[in-house]
């Protein structure tokens, strides 16, 4: 009897061990199905909401990437196909995540705190290559940094180039993006409503596509040796620390300049501050004013100007604010409770199993 019971017990144990993986796999399958169902319901909600959208900014599409229709397709193609040279520096963000701020920080690190002779030189020193293409790349004085919004998988990449990536809380990004699209007449969205724009943001149907996909494309490379990563919120919290880290990343001579003369650091902070930028960058894209100081504008800029005029925007549009508020938490003044909950849900779904969940506390 003891022998029989021993064998019987072994059979039970063996059967139990066989069933355990099956139950585990079943749980995984149910979990996956639940996540897929939740995602499907979320997508269905977005689809139904999108049916109500009555106004969209004007975009074109190239190789699956939305970009402003006002941009020259030739220039946009040139930016994507550019072969980086050793020492090239790129500033990349999803739109309205701190691009202009980082452009100024980098610019004044390169200039070791020396002010630009005229604000119009800003576009030459840190050209937006998606808009100006090879002409802007060739004419940029070195050292300098190229601005782009391209996702990592579509970036001009070289291990000998350096990349600065900045991200921002998606809620503040969405709000800032809305004002950018509405106030820039080239988008043809001057009478657009925030609710429509929010649905486009949720569906990833804005320029450079989905915010979360763009972030996830860059996320695995955040610790690459030729990538400098920071957040808009970290810059707001302690800009001096970001400047010091970035100076070290860009080259020994830049951190040496700061260590030898503290005025260099103070000047970088001042000239990249929001009050200074609001005052001095408001006319950066004014073609006529720019030509008076910097000479003939690039083809890409002229293309934007001509396209915008072809839309016949109203004469009473508010003046374009190149730099708006520059604050953290403005989303609280715009998102409804329901919109906030939906964006929180998408954030959790898309950023699952990443450190990004620790970067932004959901409210």
TrEMBL record:
- InterPro entries from the xrefs? P-loop_NTPase, Sulfotransferase_dom
Alphabetically sorted, this entry's keywords are: Signal, Transferase
Annotated signal peptide: 1-26
Under the heading Gene3D superfamilies, the entry gives: P-loop containing nucleotide triphosphate hydrolases
Note the SUPFAM superfamilies from the entry.
P-loop containing nucleoside triphosphate hydrolases
Recorded superkingdom? Eukaryota
Which GO molecular-function terms appear in the entry? sulfotransferase activity
- Show the stretches that span the lipid bilayer: none
> Domain Sulfotransferase, which positions?
87-354
Keyword Protein transport among record annotations: no
Pfam families per the UniProt record, alphabetical: Sulfotransfer_1 (PF00685)
Q: Which family does it belong to?
A: Belongs to the sulfotransferase 1 family.
Kindly provide the name given to this protein in its UniProt entry: Sulfotransferase 1 family member D1
Q: Which lineage do the record's taxonomy fields give for this organism?
A: Eukaryota, Metazoa, Ecdysozoa, Arthropoda, Chelicerata
Q: Which gene encodes it?
A: Sult1d1
């Amino acid at each position: 009897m003891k022998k029989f019971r021993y064998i019987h017990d072994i059979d039970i144990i063996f059967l139990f061990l066989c069933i355990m993986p099956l139950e585990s796999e079943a749980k995984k399958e149910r979990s996956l199905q639940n996540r897929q169902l939740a995602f499907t319901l979320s997508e269905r909600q977005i689809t139904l909401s999108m049916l109500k959208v009555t106004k969209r900014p004007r975009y074109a599409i190239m190789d699956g990437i939305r970009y402003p229709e006002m941009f020259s397709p030739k220039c946009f193609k040139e930016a994507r196909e550019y072969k980086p040279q050793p020492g090239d520096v790129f500033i990349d963000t999803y739109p309205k995540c701190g691009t202009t701020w980082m452009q100024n920080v980098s610019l004044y690190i390169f200039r070791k705190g020396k002010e630009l002779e005229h604000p119009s030189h800003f576009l030459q020193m840190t050209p937006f290559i998606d808009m100006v293409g090879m002409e802007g790349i060739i004419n940029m004085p070195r050292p300098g940094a190229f601005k782009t919004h391209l996702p990592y998988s579509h970036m001009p990449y070289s291990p000998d180039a350096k990349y600065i990536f900045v991200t921002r809380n998606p809620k503040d990004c969405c709000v800032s993006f809305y004002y950018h699209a509405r106030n820039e007449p080239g988008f043809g969205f001057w009478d657009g409503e925030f609710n429509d724009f929010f649905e486009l943001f949720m569906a990833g149907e804005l320029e450079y596509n989905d915010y979360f996909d763009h972030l996830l494309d860059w996320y695995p490379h955040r610790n690459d040796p030729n990538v400098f990563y920071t957040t808009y919120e970290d810059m707001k919290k302690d800009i001096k620390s970001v400047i010091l880290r970035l100076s070290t990343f860009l080259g020994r001579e830049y951190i040496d300049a700061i260590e030898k003369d503290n005025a260099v650091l103070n000047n970088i902070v001042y000239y990249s501050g929001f009050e200074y930028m609001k005052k001095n960058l408001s006319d950066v894209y004014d073609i006529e004013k720019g030509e008076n100081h910097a000479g003939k504008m690039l083809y890409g800029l002229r293309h934007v100007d001509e396209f915008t005029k072809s839309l016949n925007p109203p004469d009473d549009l508010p003046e374009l604010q190149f730099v708006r508020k520059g604050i953290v938490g403005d989303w609280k003044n715009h998102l409804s409770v329901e919109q906030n909950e939906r964006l929180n849900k998408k954030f959790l779904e898309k950023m699952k199993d990443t450190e990004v969940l620790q970067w932004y506390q959901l409210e």
